[in-house]
Design goal:
There is one protein chain. The strands form two sheets. Strands 1, 2, 3, 4, 5, 6 and 7 form a seven-stranded antiparallel beta sheet that branches. The chain has helices at 9-13, 18-25, 34-64, 192-213, 229-233, 241-246, 269-286, 295-304, 312-322, 339-360, 362-375, 378-386, 390-400, 409-427, 502-511; strands spanning 68-76, 81-103, 111-114, 120-130, 143-152, 157-159, 163-166, 174-179, 182-187, 221-226, 247-254, 259-263, 480-483. Helix 9 crosses helix 10 (339-360), helix 10 packs across helix 13 (390-400) and helix 11 (362-375) packs across helix 12 (378-386). The chain has three domains: 9-64; 68-166, Immunoglobulin-like (Sandwich); 202-412 and 442-511, no CATH class. With 517 residues, the chain is an alpha+beta fold.
Length: 517
């Protein structure tokens, strides 16, 4: 039975599926009652959605054509990188294959490489993602996600499912100990106890630094523990021969990959792990602004997070004060110079960060990193959070130690220019005078605690061009190091004198002779 009802146009247009309703309104046929109309529109909508889904499925299947991927995998080619390989076939002939990959902990930053193969109906293709000298270095322990895209001459495209792969140092059979977000990789019999020592140090550091950095990590952090320095040295980034002979790295953190390499059997492993693990956490706190975190802050925080600190850096700081080698804070965006300069800079960074936390609290430090991410400028971030820039902080810190503050950056720059001009005049008193020229050692300052090789010249910070920066704009910890056997810097013998307060007493007079005191 037909039922005629009147429905207001305003009510009709407000109902779901209003385009259908407008069609019904435009006719002069008898209207069914509103409830029946709702049912009709609902059923019609379901039919359309189902048809769309079916159509999309058919399109996807059609796009894949006759392509079949028989095998798709990744293999470690340590130390040269990762080899991707694929076996595929299509009756229409394969003419293009690409492998897409990204670091698992950095979503949205995908890259791809072309796969080499001989075109045909059945192909075997390979592509190597190089590491080290052949490409952008990435450490063992790096986890990636990858997939292949295969195209044939008929225009069909097939994209394989994504897979995860961990780049391993395949010289060894790796085992793991895991707790929450932390995984420690180790190898060898009777080594699990040592791996648990490494894990415990990382856990303690995590608990200590979370309130300081204001973060709550949700992505895994990986530690690759080597049994000796010889094994680990092959996994580290390339270093010049001069640096390699003078340094022994105990650990190195890679914030972009969330990986830490460590010498697990070194006597200082607990302190090294906690120091370097802090770098991973600082990388998370700073995010995309990690490149704007100056070394004095990054290394100072790493030492604040060191659960087994020594007095070496305190002694180095006293030595730096006594020898007038304490540099302005704003010159320590990266550490460089002589081995002694590097150690002094660590002592200074540690002392400044300790002063900031003791004076203003952990919450203020945690507030600094979100502001740094927004401003991308350490001075602006410090001004907003601490009401002083690096010059103001340097002044406050020096006054807290009983030292005279430095001139302003502009005044200091002027003094340096005058000192440079005077030095040049003294070095070349006559136009035709003979001079002995000794080329400066320009080895990379790629290590971050005890030593580095370079001689500072015009740059007051002594920074070199080889500080470790990764390929994506972030920064890596240059590593915790000790002097290689027989290569300790001779000036550090002066550390025997550092317990005396003479350096602090003499500093005001020494400052008048040299602007860096």
């Amino acid at each position: 039975m037909k039922i005629s009802v009147k429905i207001k146009f305003a009510e009709l247009s407000s109902l779901p599926g209003s385009p259908v309703y407008r069609h019904w309104r435009s006719t002069n046929v008898n209207l069914i009652k509103e409830e029946d109309l709702r049912v009709f529109v609902f059923v019609t909508t379901l039919f359309l959605l189902a048809g769309s889904a079916f159509s999309a499925t058919m399109v996807t299947r059609a796009d894949e054509g006759n392509i079949k991927v028989v095998e798709a995998k990744a293999e470690s080619q340590f130390p040269d990188g990762i080899k991707f390989s694929v076996i595929a076939n299509s009756t229409d002939g394969i003419d293009d294959i690409r492998v897409f990959f990204s670091k698992v902990d950095q979503q949205g930053r995908s890259s791809y490489r072309s796969v080499d193969f001989e075109p045909g109906d059945s192909v075997v293709g390979e592509s190597v993602l190089p590491s080290g000298r052949g490409g952008d270095y990435f450490p063992p322990g790096t986890k990636i996600e990858y997939s292949f895209e295969v195209r044939d001459k008929a225009g069909a495209v097939l994209r394989t499912d994504s897979k995860e792969f961990v780049y391993e140092d395949n010289r060894f059979e790796w085992l793991t100990v895991v707790e929450d977000l932390i995984t420690v990789y180790y190898y060898g019999e009777y080594v699990e106890d040592r791996a648990n020592v490494v894990l415990a140090a990382a856990k303690e550091n995590l608990e200590r630094m979370l309130p300081v950095l204001g973060i709550a990590p949700t992505e895994p952090l990986r530690i690759v523990s080597y049994n000796n320095y010889r094994h680990m040295s092959s996994a580290l980034p390339f270093r010049s021969q001069t640096v390699s002979e003078g340094l022994q790295t105990q650990g190195m953190a890679f914030s972009n990959e969330r990986v830490l390499l460590v010498h697990g059997f070194d006597p200082t492993v607990t302190g090294t792990v906690s120091h370097e693990f802090t770098h991973l956490l600082v990388g998370e706190a700073a995010g995309s602004a990690i490149g704007q975190v100056p070394s004095w802050l990054n290394e100072g925080l790493a030492e604040y997070g060191n659960i087994d600190p020594t007095d070496d850096y305190d002694a180095a700081l006293r030595y730096g004060i006594f020898t007038r080698r304490i540099k302005p804070l704003w010159y320590l965006s990266s550490f460089g110079g002589t081995p002694e300069d590097i150690i002094i800079a660590y002592g200074q960074g540690r002392s400044v960060v300790q002063y900031m936390i003791d004076t203003y609290g952990e919450a203020r430090m945690a507030a600094l990193f979100p502001v740094l991410q927004r401003t991308l400028d350490i001075d602006l971030a410090l001004l907003e959070v601490y009401a002083m820039d690096q010059f103001g902080l340097d002044t406050a810190w020096r006054e807290a130690l009983g030292l005279e503050p430095l001139p302003s950056p502009d005044e200091l720059e002027s003094e340096l220019e005058e000192a440079s001009e005077t030095s040049e005049t003294e070095a070349f008193p006559a136009e035709n005078s003979e001079t002995d020229e000794s080329p400066a050692d320009t080895g990379a300052a790629s290590e971050s605690t005890d030593t580095a090789e370079s001689t500072p010249k015009a740059d007051p910070a002594g920074a070199t061009e080889d500080d470790e920066k990764d390929s994506e704009g972030g920064s890596n910890s240059p590593g915790c190091n000790v002097p290689a056997s027989g290569n300790a810097p001779t000036g550090l013998g002066m550390l025997l004198l550092l317990g005396a307060p003479f350096g602090l007493v003499a500093l005001p007079r020494l400052r008048r002779r040299w602007p860096f005191s």
